[in-house]
Amino acid sequence: MPFTSEEAFDLLQRSRERGRFSQAYLISGAAGAGKKQLLTRLATLLFGEAGPPQKHPDFHAIEPQMKSRVIGVDAMQELLGHLHMRSRMGGPKVAVINDADRMNVSASNALLRTLEEPPGQTHFFLLSTQPEQLLETILSRCIEVPLRSYERQPLTEHQLSLLDALSATPAKGDLAAVFALARRFAVLLAEAKEKIDDDSSAAFKKEEVVLKQVGARKEAIEDRDDFYKALTESRYRAEREGLIAIAEQWFADALRHQHGAPAVDHTDFYDATASLATTLSTAELLRRSAALTELRENFGRNVQEQLAIECAFLKAFGGA
Question: How many Å apart are CA 263 and CA 281, to the nearest integer?
Answer without folding.
Answer: 20
